Fold each of these.
Amino acid sequence: MIDLSTYRPKGDKRNTAFFEENLPRVYERRAASGIDGLVGQMAAIVVQVDHGHAIEAMAELALMGPYRFRECWLSETHRIYLQAAAAGQPQLILLEPLTTEYDDEVTRWNTMYPLSAKRPNARYIGEIYNCGDCGAVRGILESQNIRFVYPGEITNSFYALEHLTFTFLSDYTYNRVGYVDVPLDSLAPLDLGDRVLLDDEPLEVLEQAARKHELHGLAGKVLGVDHLATRVLAGEREDALLEYLTMVPYYFWGAYNIAEMNSSTNVTRHPSVEDEKLSPARVFTANNTPSYLNSLVNLPMPTEEFVRNFGRRMHHLAYEVADGEVSGVKNVDFVVEILRDLGVPFLAEVVGECTDQPNLKQIFSRSSPHTLLITEYVQRCLGYEGFFTRDNVAALTEAAGHEERYAHGQVFD
């Protein structure tokens, strides 16, 4: 357990006096108000896809990682799918609108940006955290000006239930935070609507993807979600961090400059878990120089280009790969080789080296055509502590930047 009163964040990213003054105040208020006692570990990850994309998206998840379909429920507006990984790890809840005409604030945010408009309802929604009592959490955080959704105020009733409550979309990240006070081994306690049994054809698609994962030796190597990374604007980095730390019992682990990519990587973690997969780290990446000033320094800015093209949103979901090797090939290289053979496209080669010193090997996939999320695979060799090396992050950020470019007039980002 981390002692937040004495912990000193890692890294070389300089924060403002505003951030340094308010970070301990956020911790102190959280403890005094009861949030630290009421809110626990991450219970689920919520992703929405466009109508007609759910089965393909779940098959992709089953092939590329440990998530397996468990059940489906029907609400007035959505099919809601539950996927489970290993015991104790967050579930994955997939929302699929019932029609192509479905429209809510997610649709409107997506259609504001040139490269997300093509998938108007595809979006990472946010995380759900276990809590002792949803009403108590909501009452405490509302007194701190955190806004929550209420029944009758929103198109998708999933966001405002008796045992599951969500915040508004954050002004800084466009993500939500949810709280649940019942176990999510099944969605039945949430009273979403009617249970739906999938037909044989979609079930076979999901089962075939899971079989491929097993038969090609990926089981036991891709272990679970390690971290989730959101990209925000340069001037909103500190606000996004402090807002998130107001709402969940995480701490600011540290931040590092990636000078050659004109960005910083900022990590928050749960203080009482030793295995990140039980409550994945939340990472926030932002430019150092905002786009309107960047021509003065003429540096790459793939992080802010992503925000300009897709909006503030989740950029990638990272899986931990077990340390080890297969026939002299590191596990992450083996995983990537198999997935490439099965048709999964990647942005570049694996970066990083694992020799006789602790280190990381990492790689980004191309973004999913269904969720718009990139998948990262990361192998920590010889007990490496941390989430990145500067060289690795620079290479990954550059590779993603080539994928996420948008040409408009005389501006090419």
Note: The chain has eleven helices and 19 strands.
Amino acid sequence: MIEDVSEPCQIGLELLASRPDAPPGLRAPALGGMATLCWILGRNKEAISLHEELLEAFMRAGNEQGAAWAMLCVAVQAMDRNDGSAYLLTEAVLFIPQASLRTRIAALICLSRQNYYDGHYSRALELCAESAALARQLGDRLVLGVALTNLAESTEQVSDLSTAEDLLREALLTTLELGSQANLVGYLESLASVYVHQARADLAIRVLAAAAAYPIVRRHPLTAPELLQIEELLATARTQVGPIRFGLAWAAGRTLTLPHAIQQIL
């Protein structure tokens, strides 16, 4: 993916630099596109700068719907670098009346993740439920899959493992036909957590091994909390089954293709 977008990204950045005085309404979409490409390429400092400029351009153009989305992009990047401003920025997005339904859903998802990682599970569950309800209204299967997964993880925290598993199965089915491997891998990892807590460690290990075989499909590296969560899952599963069964289950999981791993679950 990096090879596919690096050249157009460079061309776009050069064009932006050559027209610094372009009208805000014309410059803003270009800034948004280049910020996204830089983010995909891992050029985070450039992405942050471009998204901040994007927010300013939308505000100068009087485009509040665009400003809401740009503010959310700035908030997401603040969250990625553990900046405390992420909370305030994300909440501010929800108070912009012109924010689109998609932007509101994304803001609720981001805010729910912030609360989840900070241990505020009840609040995270409320936000997840609201985002999932709005995602069903939007009708976008990819967005719905993400919302369902977050809702499942918060439901798991209140020990409703059966509901959490059902939500994750729905997320898999919702996203399967779209072919979004990065999302499917994430859903498998969330299911593995449910399986560990259900004492189904062998299945959890196979699922995690299958997911680990597909690191290339990730757009971005896992965050520190996500990495820690997977490490804790693996440690718990190893304790449940012992090193020999763990090794056998892991080896079996590594041979599974992504469709086969999903087939075993569904």
Note: The mean pLDDT is 88.
